[in-house]
Amino acid sequence: MDKEVIKEISKKYPDIKELFEKHQALEREVAQISQKGYLTPKEELKVKELKKEKLYIKELIYKLIKKYEGINID
């Protein structure tokens, strides 16, 4: 699902908006850490954890959209 579509839907639902903003913040954090040419093992682990959290939030967003809008995302 496109980010713009999620952004539009999030205008109607505060919980989706909050999750979407958290997802965007995590995305920026991953990008910032990943800019470095070399990541330490600690930084690599941090990126993996952030990506897992992003995925979890994305799944929550999709479930809520499906629940609220009846949109089939599967």
TrEMBL record:
A Pfam family matched in the record: DUF465
InterPro entries, alphabetized: DUF465, DUF465_sf
Name of the protein in its database record: DUF465 domain-containing protein
